[in-house]
Amino acid sequence: MDINRILKGVKCNSCGKEHKCPIENVYIESNATKHLSHLTEKYKNVLIVADDNTYSACGKETEKALYNKVKSRVIFSGKTVLIPDERAIDKVNENIEGIDLIVGIGSGVIQDLCKYVSHFSGIPYMIVATAPSMDGYASSGAAMILNGMKETVPAGLPLAIIADTKVLKNAPMEMIKAGYGDIIGKYSALNDWELSRAVNDEYFCQYIYDTTYKMIEKTLKTANGLLKREEESVKNLTEALIVVGIMMSFATTSRPASGSEHHLSHYFEITGIVKNEPYFPHGIDVVYSTVITAEIRENLLKKELPSEQYTEPREEYLKNMQATYGKVANGCIKLQEKMGRYNQNRLPIYKEKEQEIKGILSKMPTSKQIKEMLSLCELDISEFYKLYGKKKIENAVRYAKDLKDRYTVLWYNYDLGE
After folding, report:
1. Using CA atoms, how far apart are residues 394 and 400, in angstroms rounded to an integer?
2. How many domains does the chain divide into?
3. In what order do the strands lie in the sheet with 25-29?
4. Which of 121, 230, 300, 357 is the residue whose CA sits 20 to 30 A from 110?
5. Has residue 269 been placed in a domain?
6. How far is CA 301 from CA 94, 295, 350, 356, 411, in A?
7. Which CA distances in Å does 380 have to 198, 258, 370, 372?
8. What's the pLDDT tens digit per position in 45-74?
9. Can you give the pTM of this predicted structure?
10. Do 107 and 26 fall within a single domain?
11. 74 forms bridges with which residues in the sheet?
12. Statement to judge: residues 164 and 31 lie in one domain
């Protein structure tokens, strides 16, 4: 797929919109860092943002391409998990005076930090990818943790994405598997998007849906090559991740790529941070959670609609939210009060569109099929059950929906009292 052609924009016959993405250049190839030389010709004072590991991966190559333009560096210690929170933001902001370009070297967190600081400072940025681990390189949202809450902040996009396949294929295998998992999770995200169109008349674009679906199918063919660290397979995965990011930019929302499976993964991450408990890398949590959302859909397809929509007693809800989320519970509660979903009776629309909804839910691959996709990349769902346990997974299914303002199958499941 010619990514740079897509970046020029698409006049969509499906939704009638003209889709645009302000990224100027994407290079996914061997020795891609060489392109930084001509891409940064008009810049004089560059800030490098990386961590110990990502700088070791291609920091020297990046600086060589930038010649003597690097005026400052923020290198986070690789000894601890880097969290994209207020402290990390402050550390980058302390080094932006006199800077006219930020160059991030890394993947998820480094990318989100650069994106966030770039957006609010007005300083453009470029990203040198070090792992094919997530789809955020080309998305317009920065996944931050602010005031303890997982929050996708609308932010700017990089001027360029530099993805050196020689570097990417040597990323930790866990991160390569995470990128694979993040793409497989799109089955669930796309299904939630279609479900919300039916229930809430939400904006939907068939072109974006179909393009994202093609990226899933393309990625499934790479699994064996990824395990062997084949450069072409890693290139194909990286392309899929970046194209999906562009589709999010086209949609002006993460809808095509993030749904109930992401809400569950955010639940495990947030509760892990709050309670100092272990959790999987994002993409791996996403694909394991996709098995759970597939099981939810399978269960719902067997159920008849109830006579009344389920409503949890207010006192019980507040008590359970505090026990589940601790210090970030109030933020979740306020978000849902603002959305008003607990006050909405959706049962009439469920009854009116019961057959359409069942048709949508049945499009999702089965949990057995998702597990087979996991096994292709040597991911074992038993590790997920082992780490989190039955109770925590049940709590995630019930309360992960409260982390976000988005309608997904988790709400449909809750409304039916499941």
Report:
1. 10
2. 2
3. 25-29, 160-164, 125-129, 101-106, 46-51, 70-76
4. 230
5. yes
6. 53, 10, 13, 12, 15
7. 34, 22, 11, 10
8. 999 999 999 999 999 999 999 988 999 999
9. 0.91
10. yes
11. 49
12. yes
